[in-house]
Amino acid sequence: MAINLDFSSLLEPGLFTEDPWWLYLLGGAGWTIALAVAAFALALALGLVIGTLRTVRTPWIRHFAEAWIELFRNIPLIVQIFVWYFVVPELIPAYKSWMIAADPLTTQFLSAFLCLGLFTSSRVAEQVRAGIESIPKGLPAAARALGLTTVQSYRFVLLPIAFRIILPPLTSESMNLVKNTAVAITIGLPELTMRANEMGENTFQFFAAYCWATVLYIVISLAVNRLMTTVEARCAVPGFIARRA
């Protein structure tokens, strides 16, 4: 079976707009970027908190953090997005009423945002925990000797160093998050994968559609990688991780 290598369909007007298909897919990439950035911000905020709680001495707080991580890390991502979009509204009538009245794009984006943000937060939390535990024991001891409280020790000593240590795995996590946004196609969010699928179904040019989508995913991932690598190089802690040029 011969593969159609004709990419001219990308220049044809789309079915839903007068813009060409390549621009229509570029709009989907915008949704992908917005979702990835928002979800990563949520994951980073929650991951820092949950990861920190995993290292405290109070047992019930530590167990709560462990339960959070195991809950969101061990349920398949596609199941989680269905839960947020179909199950949670049934459990919260006020939220369901709001979803019915709101713009579908808003509800789809919100569900995908919560799903990806909470899922990724469990992974970030484990990285934060590992970063804190990799710090030599003399540093928190020195912080206590200086009269810092536990909260102050975490805020001014442990977390700033731990965050800089875990920047390399955070780079991989941010790139994985960009790819995980494709799961939002299952609830109708018009991100890049869904728009590529729409182009293929309406023009029968699946090869051209997914080749262009692949290029866009690569460009986005490389941009994220370069950004995180730059931050990593500027924030590297001598003695913990090699500074990359």
From TrEMBL:
GO cellular component, one term: ATP-binding cassette (ABC) transporter complex
PROSITE patterns per the UniProt record, alphabetical: ABC_TM1
Residues that span the membrane, as ranges: 21-50, 71-88, 108-125, 145-167, 204-224
Family: Belongs to the binding-protein-dependent transport system permease family. HisMQ subfamily.
This protein's record includes keyword Cell membrane: yes
Pfam families: BPD_transp_1
Database matches in InterPro entries: AA_ABC_transptr_permease_3TM, ArtM/GltK/GlnP/TcyL/YhdX-like, MetI-like, MetI-like_sf
Name of the protein described by the UniProt record: ABC transporter, permease protein
Location(s), subcellular: Cell inner membrane; Cell membrane
Gene3D superfamilies per UniProt: MetI-like
Topology in membrane: Multi-pass membrane protein
GO biological process: amino acid transport
Any one Gene Ontology molecular-function term assigned to this protein's record: transmembrane transporter activity
Domain ABC transmembrane type-1: 29-228
Main location group: membrane
Record key words, sorted: Cell membrane, Membrane, Transmembrane, Transmembrane helix, Transport
